[in-house]
Amino acid sequence: MKIVKKSANGHSREQLLKEYFLNAYLIAVLKRVGEEAGRLRPRPAAKMVEAKIPVR
């Protein structure tokens, strides 16, 4: 089965239904991977304490 998409300027694009769902699936997977990577990224360490060094 084919899907035909028409743009505003009159061009049409045909895409196989299988290809359409594969693209949608890949987009969903990549979005999920990005969310998980953001969730699992290392948190910044506790605030660093400023060392006070006497200056002459």
Strand order of the largest sheet: 1-2
Which term fits the overall shape? elongated
Radius of gyration: 25 Å
Quickly give the structural class.
Answer: alpha+beta
Number of strands: 2
The portion of residues assigned to helices is 40-55%
Order of helices and strands: EEH
User: Which spans have pLDDT < 50 for at least 5 consecutive residues?
Assistant: none
Roughly what fraction of the amino acids lie in strands?
15-25%
- Mean pLDDT across residues: 79
Number of helices: 1
Cα-to-Cα separation, first versus last residue: 81 Å
Sheet with the most strands? 2 strands, antiparallel
Note down, in words, how this protein is organized:
The structure is a single chain. The protein is α+β, with helices and mostly antiparallel strands. It has one helix at residues 17-40, and strands spanning 2-6, 12-16. Strands 1-2 form a two-stranded antiparallel sheet. Strand 1 (2-6) and strand 2 form a beta hairpin. The longest helix has 24 residues, at 17-40.
Task: From the structure above, extract its key features.
56 residues; alpha+beta; two-stranded antiparallel ribbon; 2 strands; 18% strand
Offer a concise description of the structure:
This protein is α+β, with helices and mostly antiparallel strands. It is 43% helix and 18% strand. A hairpin with a 5-residue loop joins strand 1 (2-6) and strand 2 (12-16).
